[in-house]
């Protein structure tokens, strides 16, 4: 009957009516009865009572007429103990659910408290005897212990609803404001954490169990030491959970899962196995990666905790076992940084934690074995992140950033710079390339706090340490707290009198250092006029301190650089307002021998200004000599570039090559002085450096020549001092460098080179007959060849004449030629690798340049036909020269390199003979047999592998054919089967380029020369019309188009047109193609160099490089200076030939 009544009451209370409780006359009496009924042994009755109590409590709290008094508070803690006892003893799921529901509501109302937390007034509403008995029983088991025991069974219930409700009760109990730390500790001691871990293990990673378990474990983890052991035991259950929550974007349990993992790793090092650690790290990295690329996000707390896990791994490497920690940290840092930088609206704490991880990772990369490849890779990755992502992000977003983030980024950069390594230097370069000085003062303008100011100046000091070395930034560290934030204030402070301000000297030293370093990298932190005025005031006020021997020369360097730069910039802007007194003080500092200008870092504008000041020329002479000595001792690697404004050979080379300073004059005068004093070691040092300067900047040779380097060389010739062979070779090296790069105009009026030329010939050309010359003699021959080459441009003409008619050289040439010619077929074995072959190569080069020089300097004196015949064949020529038959013999039997040079020499000789015949209308003096022998050799080389040899021989053969017009008795080409074969081979390659062999393709250009010459004859051989018949010409036209038309082919078609070989249709086809070709050239025009690009000789002592340079020089000038029928490759020449063709076509059409 009782149970039915209670059940009916429960049904009534379960109706959806909030005013039901108002109809109960005495709620407290009813509750008293119900609470007493909980002690009955029947689960059914207790279940009904629990439901009624639950509904009464719920209705009272939601009733509109309810007051603020909790209706159950007066029955606590008795009720709580009874509920705990019911929950612990009952096995009925409905009873458990009702009990748990009521306990949950009580927990939400903060009533699950210990006895001492309640007022004893509850006794007025309950039976005194019973209450006293229950309280006595409570002393044996506290409420929290009772509750812990009570929930163990429901936690492991097979009924998921019971299990979830129990977890919910536990969560609300632990989160109640009435729950103290000691109560959570008791819960852990009662193994509740173990039970929750077990529930988590059995959950099969399904929500809401996972979420609720992790929320409970998060609260239990506050019991630090007590929870630690349980966490280690249950840690393995977190791994699959982490896999699960990592797959769900913003899963509410992500944070608690990662936090528990963090606590286990940090509080229990070594508790996690290597395999577990590796698995966890991979999952965390994957989470960060997905977050960075936007594939799946995570909450800020989760992100922070994931970064914290890696920080712990870095700080306690013993806990990571066999894990490849550097690689894991690298991936984590990379993805975390990209996530913060690339995704907008990141939480500030996320960014700060990411930067903290970045700093810890970089410090870790420097710990222990610094040559560890994985750590080096990690370091490189961090530097790359800072350079390519963090630095641009900071610079572009500084105006929207919080001060804490800016500070953290600056600290990160500072940490990198503090490590003395190449990495710090490279990162310093990155900062400099981003105008870091300007950015720093911009940052100080945005954030006025002392922390930012101090960090900015500290970072600048470390930056200067990396850039300049030797703790150069220490003055800034010393004065960082006293320096102003505004750069204008800095400039103003520099020009103040020190008087009694003890901090001012250190501040001025720091300011001067900042300005000096910033200007080295072309940054201006204040107006230049303002800085110059302040700097001059500083110089005037502190003039006495500059002469103090205890003063650091580095201060002088800063002053000179800054002052010279400001004056140089002012001169460029035509601003000349300055203090002459300050300038004189500065010049006195420069003249101090203790200061080494050329070992300092100084801006190029400042250095140029110094080299423009005549007052310090003598001092600069000493500085240059000191630089030459150091350079010679160090062996001097050539440094191309001037990134750090270091005064190296590159800087000096640029100065010497320019007209607006005394650089070239200083070197020339210094060398002349050393020659007179006979200081051989210094002479060698200066000579070697000057040669290097020309190697870097060939234009320096012009300035040196204009300032009298030739006259200085002549002082060596007449000097009474004796110099060693080493000095002579250094002189030769410099001479070669000058002559190989100078423009002829710079030498045109210089007669001092005659003495130099004669001195070289005197020392290194042996008077006795020898078919092998020493390396030194060959090097001199190379220089003499350059002099002869320059004479063709109206320079060094008199010096060239002394060479051309020098009997010793003529004898040496004749001896070498006779020795080579006498070897016959064996000559091919004497290539450039042999002494005889090397001597022959240089002799042939000298001969080539001699022929050109003879034509330029002694025009009308030489009878060029004497090279073909002589009244006395044994009598040598009165100048440097090789007879034609000797050249042909050498050409025929010589090695490949010898063939190249001999073919150019023969071509030059044929040109001279042709010009003479054409100008004087004289007849050839040589016999038909002589011509036949030459013709045979030339025909045999038309198909030679080297295109230069083949082309040169073909051009010579075409000249030979033109000479035959003067010999009516001889018809060399009319019956020449060889010429016909050449034509036939050529047409095959023109008609079917793809079918032609490689040798045919190479011989196409030489053959066109011969074909063109034959088509120019008055009597064209009849077989020419057979070879160039209608089908052949049509085939040639079909194989070419507007984009593939070559100059040689067009010249051939032009001669065919003029010889009336083309039909009307073919002419029309060519005309249309030429129109398209011209359009194609204009559409795809190429910028052609106005003059051939000269190669720079790197090691003149290598004779192979010397003759290779001369061969290139010979090749370039031959093609430029070829007569009108020759070919100059380029679009310009092709366009000219197109116009000639179309003009000829127009004339022909008009005549018809």
UniProtKB/TrEMBL annotation:
Gene name linked to the record: LOC107459514
Domain of life: Eukaryota
Signal peptide: none
Protein name: Protein PUTATIVE RECOMBINATION INITIATION DEFECT 1-like isoform X2
Matches recorded under InterPro entries: ARM-like, ARM-type_fold, PRD1
GO terms for biological process, alphabetical: meiotic DNA double-strand break formation
């Amino acid at each position: 009957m009782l149970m039915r009544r209670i059940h009916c009451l429960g049904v009534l209370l379960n109706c959806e009516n909030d005013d039901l409780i108002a109809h109960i006359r005495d709620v407290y009496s009813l509750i008293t009865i119900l609470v007493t009924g909980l002690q009955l042994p029947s689960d059914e009755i207790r279940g009904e009572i629990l439901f009624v109590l639950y509904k009464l409590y719920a209705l009272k709290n939601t009733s509109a007429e309810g007051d603020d008094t909790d209706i159950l508070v007066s029955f606590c803690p008795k009720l709580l103990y009874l509920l705990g006892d019911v929950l612990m003893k009952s096995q009925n799921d409905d009873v458990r659910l009702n009990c748990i529901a009521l306990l949950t509501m009580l927990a939400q109302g903060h009533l699950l408290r210990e006895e001492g937390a309640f007022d004893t007034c509850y006794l007025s509403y309950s039976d005194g005897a019973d209450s006293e008995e229950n309280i006595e029983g409570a002393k044996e088991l506290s409420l929290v212990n009772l509750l812990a025991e009570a929930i163990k069974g429901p936690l492991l219930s097979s009924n998921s609803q019971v299990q979830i409700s129990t977890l919910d009760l536990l969560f609300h109990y632990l989160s109640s404001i009435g729950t103290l730390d000691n109560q959570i500790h008791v819960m852990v001691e009662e193994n509740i954490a173990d039970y929750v871990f077990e529930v988590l293990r059995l959950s099969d990673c399904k929500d809401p169990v996972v979420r609720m378990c992790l929320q409970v474990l998060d609260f239990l983890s506050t019991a630090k030491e007590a929870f630690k052991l349980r966490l280690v035991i249950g840690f393995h259950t977190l791994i699959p959970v982490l896999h699960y929550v990592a797959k769900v974007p913003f899963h509410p349990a992500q944070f608690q899962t990662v936090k528990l993992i963090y606590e286990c790793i940090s509080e229990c090092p070594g508790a996690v196995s290597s395999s577990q650690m590796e698995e966890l790290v991979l999952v965390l990295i994957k989470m960060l990666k997905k977050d960075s690329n936007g594939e799946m996000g995570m909450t800020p707390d989760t992100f922070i905790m994931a970064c914290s896990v890696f920080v712990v791994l870095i700080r306690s490497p013993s806990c990571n076992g066999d894990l490849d920690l550097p690689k894991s940290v690298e991936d984590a840092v990379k993805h975390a940084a990209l996530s913060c930088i690339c995704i907008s609206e990141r939480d500030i704490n996320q960014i700060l934690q990411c930067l903290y991880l970045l700093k810890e990772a970089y410090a870790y990369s420097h710990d222990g074995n610094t040559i560890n490849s994985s750590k080096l890779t990690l370091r490189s990755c961090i530097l790359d992140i800072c350079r390519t992502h963090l630095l641009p992000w900071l610079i572009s977003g500084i105006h929207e950033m919080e001060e804490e983030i800016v500070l953290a980024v600056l600290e990160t950069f500072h940490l990198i710079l503090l490590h003395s390594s190449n990495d710090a230097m490279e990162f310093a370069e990155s900062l400099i390339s981003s105008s870091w000085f300007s950015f720093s003062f911009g940052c100080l303008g945005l954030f006025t706090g002392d922390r930012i100011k101090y960090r900015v100046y500290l970072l600048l000091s470390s930056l200067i340490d990396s850039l300049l070395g030797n703790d150069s930034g220490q003055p800034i560290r010393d004065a960082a707290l006293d320096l102003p934030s505004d750069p204008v204030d800095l400039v103003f402070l520099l020009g103040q009198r020190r008087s009694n301000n003890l901090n001012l000297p250190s501040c001025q030293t720091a300011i001067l250092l900042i300005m000096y370093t910033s200007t080295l990298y072309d940054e201006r932190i204040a107006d230049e006029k303002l800085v110059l005025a302040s700097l001059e005031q500083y110089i005037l006020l502190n003039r006495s301190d500059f002469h103090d021997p205890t003063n650091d020369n580095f201060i002088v360097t800063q002053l000179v650089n800054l002052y010279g730069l400001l004056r140089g910039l002012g001169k460029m802007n035509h601003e000349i307002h300055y203090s002459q007194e300050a300038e004189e003080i500065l010049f006195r500092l420069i003249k101090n021998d203790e200061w080494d200008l050329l070992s300092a870092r100084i801006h190029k504008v400042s250095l140029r200004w110094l080299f423009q000041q005549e007052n310090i020329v003598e001092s600069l002479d000493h500085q240059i000599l000191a630089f030459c000595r150091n350079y010679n001792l160090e062996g001097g690697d050539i440094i191309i570039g001037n990134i750090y404004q270091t005064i190296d050979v590159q800087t000096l080379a640029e100065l010497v090559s320019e007209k607006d300073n005394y650089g070239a004059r200083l070197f020339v005068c210094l060398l002349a002085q050393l020659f007179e004093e006979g200081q051989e070691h210094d002479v060698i040092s200066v000579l070697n450096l000057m040669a290097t300067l020309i190697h870097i900047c060939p234009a320096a040779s012009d300035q040196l020549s204009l300032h009298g380097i030739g006259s200085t060389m002549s002082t060596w010739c007449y000097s009474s001092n004796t110099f060693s062979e080493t000095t002579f070779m250094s002189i030769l090296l410099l001479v070669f460098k000058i002559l190989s790069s100078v423009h002829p105009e710079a030498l045109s009026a210089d007669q001092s080179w005659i003495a130099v030329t004669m001195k070289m010939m005197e020392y290194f050309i042996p008077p006795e007959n020898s078919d092998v010359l020493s390396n030194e003699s060959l090097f001199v021959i190379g220089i003499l060849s350059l002099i002869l080459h320059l004479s063709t441009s109206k320079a060094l003409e008199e010096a060239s004449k002394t060479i051309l008619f020098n009997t010793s050289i003529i004898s040496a040439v004749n001896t070498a030629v006779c020795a080579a010619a006498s070897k016959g077929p064996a000559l091919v074995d004497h290539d450039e690798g042999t002494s005889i072959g090397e001597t022959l190569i240089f002799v042939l080069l000298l001969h080539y340049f001699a022929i050109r020089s003879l034509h330029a300097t002694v025009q009308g004196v030489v009878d060029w036909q004497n090279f073909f015949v002589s009244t006395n064949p044994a009598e040598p020529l009165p100048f440097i020269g090789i007879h034609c038959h000797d050249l042909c013999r050498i050409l025929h039997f010589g090695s490949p390199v010898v063939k190249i040079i001999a073919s150019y020499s023969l071509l030059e000789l044929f040109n001279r003979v042709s010009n003479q015949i054409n100008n004087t209308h004289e007849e050839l003096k040589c016999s038909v047999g002589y011509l036949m022998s030459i013709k045979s050799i030339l025909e045999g080389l038309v198909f030679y592998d080297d295109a230069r040899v083949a082309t040169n021989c073909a051009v010579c053969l075409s000249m030979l054919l033109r000479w035959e017009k003067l010999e009516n008795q001889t018809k060399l080409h009319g019956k020449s089967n060889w010429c016909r074969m050449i034509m036939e081979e050529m047409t095959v390659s023109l008609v079917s380029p793809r079918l032609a062999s490689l040798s045919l393709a190479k011989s196409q250009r030489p053959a066109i020369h011969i074909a063109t010459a034959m088509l120019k004859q008055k009597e064209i051989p009849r077989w020419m019309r057979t070879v160039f018949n209608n089908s052949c010409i049509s085939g040639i036209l079909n194989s070419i188009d507007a984009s593939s038309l070559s100059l040689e082919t067009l010249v051939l078609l032009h001669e065919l047109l003029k010889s009336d070989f083309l039909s009307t249709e073919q002419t029309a086809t060519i005309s249309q193609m030429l129109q398209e070709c011209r359009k194609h050239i204009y559409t795809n025009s190429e910028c052609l160099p106005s003059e051939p690009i000269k190669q720079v000789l790197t090691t003149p002592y290598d004779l192979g490089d010397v003759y290779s340079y001369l061969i290139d020089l010979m090749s370039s000038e031959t093609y430029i200076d070829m007569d009108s029928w020759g070919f100059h490759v380029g679009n310009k020449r092709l366009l000219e030939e197109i116009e000639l063709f179309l003009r000829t076509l127009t004339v022909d059409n008009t005549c018809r």
